[in-house]
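Q: What would this chain look like folded?
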Amino acid sequence: MKSALVLGAGGFIGGHLVKRLKKEGFWVRGVDIKFNEHAETEADDFVIGDLRDQAFCRSVIDRNFDEVYQLAADMGGAGYIFTGEHDADIMHNSATINLNVADIAHKRNIKRTFYSSSACMYPAYNQEDPDNPNCAEGSAYPAAPDSEYGWEKLFSERLFLAYNRNHGLSNRVARYHNIFGPEGTWDGGKEKAPAAVCRKVASTKSGDAIEIWGDGLQTRSFLYVDECIEGTLRLTRSDFEGPVNIGSDEMVTINQLVDIVADIAGKKIEKNHIPGPTGVRGRNSDNQLIQEKLGWAPSQSLRAGLEKTYEWIEWQVRRNVA
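A: My prediction, written as structure tokens:
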């Protein structure tokens, strides 16, 4: 039986990845500082601990796993990473985890570790036009991410690729673009836009307004979690090291995102635009490279993913009200 190690398995994407690996017949160890709040883990072995602690990290990377997925990070939505209040924690916590994982995996003779970077590492100067952002992989330099979160991601993807060059490893790096779906953070300040909008619409009566940060004309693309997992596995098992985008190229404004969710909910929702952290003006996944190198790109529509996500979040809202 093949074995896999999922670091960050208590998180949203990590939890879904564990489920997929189990369906494929893997023995899976999950590791995180917490259990997933929204679903029971399906991992064969789940270890609670702090990957910033080198000794703990060494204790869970205790063998040559067939596949290792490094998803653990200090992260959240715009309300967490763009305020500036958490910059030191974000950079210190995530960089420490990645320094530990990269080195210990190498010393355990693990040849290939998947690392989840982020579209937040792309230069802000290429994302000022909401209608024409440039997020092609080759546009990463000269580097100018719009947040310390993005700078740390850029550092860490270079870290894992440096281990490839210097130690003959085959680490893989993907740049995730706004992954969403059921069983993710949907309140509390770390949720991302799709979950926040679903929660607000589910909590609002038809005809009322919800608050939107900024003018709502900023653009993004959002990728449903099942597509993210598929792209992740394909890259990890391929001959291409990356970095490569894993995201949707169906770009919408935040106002349009609200309209789609409202339509799914069967509600008429007004928008109250207020000051707040919004990040770059435009961001969209450029999927030319992933199609060229892996012969694959996501195909599911944004609406299809939002229908599943809204149903799950609406249930959470009702359950919490009750």
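The mean pLDDT is 96.
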